[in-house]
C-alpha cells in the first residue's frame, strides 16, 4: 500500500462531503494510533470514554460477571439488562453512549444517521485518506442475496411498522439487499495491507446475546459493488435510491471492505467503509479530561489495545 499523504506532519487535505460534491471539510493528518504524537485532545477523550463504558453485555441484571477475551480488549462486561428487540442491534445504542459522554449535542448522529453530520467524510480516492482513532464509521452491505428464504412470509395486509409480522418480513428483505450494516468507532487504523482495523463496536454476540466490545477487522480494497456480478443491476438500483445516496461510491476507485465481528460470515466477507464522522469537527461539552473520563482511562485504554 502506498503511504497515505495525510500522514505527513502538518499536512491537511480538503475532501468532499459527498461523491463529486465541492470540498467542504479539511481532514487533519490522520491519526492511526492512540499514542500518535499529534493526537488531539478530543480523540483522547473519546478513547477514555470507551475505556470506561466498554465492554457491555445485554443480560438480565444480576447475571454472573463475564470477562471479555483479551483479543476483544478484555475487561469485565457491564450488564445492560436484557435486549428485547431481536430485530434491532446494539451498535446503534452503544455508539451514541460514547457520543453522549463527550458530545451530547451530536450524539444522535453517532448512529446510522452519521452520514447526515456536517462532519461526515466520504471514503475518497484510493488510499489518500483514512479515518482517525475516535472517528464514528459506517459499514455498508453491498451484497444482493437471492432467493429470499421462505420465512417469514409476507403479510397480506397493508404494511404496518407496528405489526411484528411486517417488521420480521421487512428485516429479512432488508438483509438480503444492500443496506447499512454497522456503525462503530475506530480505535486503531492500519497503515499497510497486512495490518487490521481495531474498532469499538456494539451489535456483537457473546453467549448468545447482544454485546459491545473491541473488534479486530481485516480489510481489503476492491471496486465497489456486490461480489456476484449478476446482481450488479439490483445493486445499482439501490445506489440510485434517495435513502441510499450517501452510500453511492465513485465507481472508478477502490473502496475499503472491512471484515470481522458479527457483521461478517468469514474473513473474506467484508462490508464497505462508506465514511466516518471526523470527531475533531464536533462540538464537545469539554474536551479536557475530567473526574469521570480521566487521563489514566486514556492510558489504560492504550494498554488494552497493546494487549490485543
Q: In a nutshell, what does this entry contain?
A:
The chain has 308 residues and is α+β, with helices and mostly antiparallel strands. Helices cover 19% and strands 21% of the residues. α1 crosses α2 (91-102) and α1 (41-53) crosses α5.
What does this structure look like?
Helix 1 crosses helix 5. The strands form two sheets. Strands 3, 4, 5, 6, 7, 8, 9, 10, 11 and 12 form a ten-stranded mixed beta sheet that branches. The protein has one domain (5-143, 178-307). The chain contains five helices and twelve strands. With 308 residues, the protein is of the alpha+beta class.
Sum up the overall morphology in one term. Answer: globular
Rg of Cα set: 19 Å
Main sheet makeup: 10 strands, mixed
Level of helix content?
10-25%
Low-confidence stretches: 1-27
Q: Please give the number of β-strands.
A: 12
Determine the N-to-C terminus distance. Answer: 24 Å
Number of domains: 1
Given helix and strand content, the structural type is alpha+beta
Order of helices and strands: EEHEEHEEHEEEEHEEH
Task: Please tally the helical runs, counting DSSP H or I stretches of 4 or more residues.
Answer: 5
Rounded average pLDDT: 88
Strand fraction equals 15-25%
List keywords for this structure.
308 residues; alpha+beta; disordered N terminus
Which SSEs are present, and which pair or pack?
Blueprint lengths: L12 E4 L6 E5 L13 H13 L2 E2 L20 E2 L11 H12 L17 E3 L13 E6 L22 H12 L3 E10 L8 E10 L2 E9 L1 E4 L9 H8 L15 E4 L12 E7 L17 H13 L1
Parallel strand pairs: 3-4
Antiparallel strand pairs: 1-2, 3-9, 5-12, 6-7, 6-12, 7-8, 8-9, 10-11, 11-12
Amino acid at each position: 500500500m502506498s503511504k497515505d499523504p495525510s500522514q505527513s506532519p502538518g499536512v491537511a487535505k480538503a475532501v468532499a462531503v459527498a461523491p463529486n460534491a465541492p470540498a467542504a471539510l479539511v481532514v487533519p493528518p490522520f491519526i492511526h494510533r492512540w499514542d500518535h504524537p499529534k493526537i488531539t485532545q478530543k480523540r483522547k477523550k473519546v478513547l477514555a470514554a470507551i475505556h470506561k463504558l466498554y465492554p457491555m453485555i445485554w443480560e438480565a441484571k444480576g447475571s454472573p460477571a463475564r470477562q471479555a477475551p483479551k483479543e476483544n480488549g478484555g475487561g469485565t462486561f457491564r450488564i445492560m439488562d436484557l435486549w428485547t428487540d431481536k430485530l434491532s442491534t446494539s451498535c446503534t445504542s452503544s455508539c451514541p453512549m460514547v457520543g453522549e459522554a463527550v458530545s451530547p449535542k451530536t450524539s444522535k448522529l453517532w448512529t446510522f444517521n452519521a452520514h447526515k453530520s456536517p462532519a461526515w467524510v466520504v471514503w475518497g480516492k484510493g488510499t489518500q485518506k483514512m479515518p482517525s482513532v475516535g472517528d464514528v464509521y459506517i459499514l455498508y452491505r453491498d451484497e444482493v442475496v437471492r432467493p429470499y428464504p421462505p420465512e417469514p412470509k409476507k403479510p397480506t395486509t397493508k404494511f404496518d411498522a407496528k405489526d411484528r409480522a411486517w417488521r420480521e418480513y421487512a428485516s429479512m428483505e432488508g438483509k438480503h439487499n444492500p443496506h447499512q450494516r454497522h456503525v462503530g468507532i475506530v480505535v486503531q487504523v492500519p497503515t499497510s495491507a497486512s495490518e487490521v482495523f481495531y474498532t469499538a463496536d456494539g451489535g456483537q454476540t457473546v453467549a448468545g446475546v447482544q454485546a459491545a466490545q473491541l473488534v479486530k477487522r481485516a480489510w481489503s480494497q476492491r471496486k465497489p459493488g456486490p461480489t456476484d456480478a449478476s446482481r450488479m443491476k439490483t445493486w445499482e438500483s439501490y445506489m440510485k435510491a434517495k435513502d441510499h445516496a450517501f452510500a453511492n461510491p465513485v465507481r472508478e476507485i477502490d473502496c475499503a471492505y472491512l471484515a470481522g465481528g458479527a457483521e461478517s460470515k468469514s474473513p473474506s466477507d467484508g462490508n464497505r467503509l462508506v465514511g466516518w464522522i471526523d470527531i475533531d469537527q464536533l462540538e464537545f461539552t469539554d474536551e479536557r479530561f475530567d473526574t469521570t473520563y480521566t487521563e489514566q482511562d486514556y492510558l489504560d485504554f492504550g494498554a488494552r489495545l497493546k494487549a490485543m
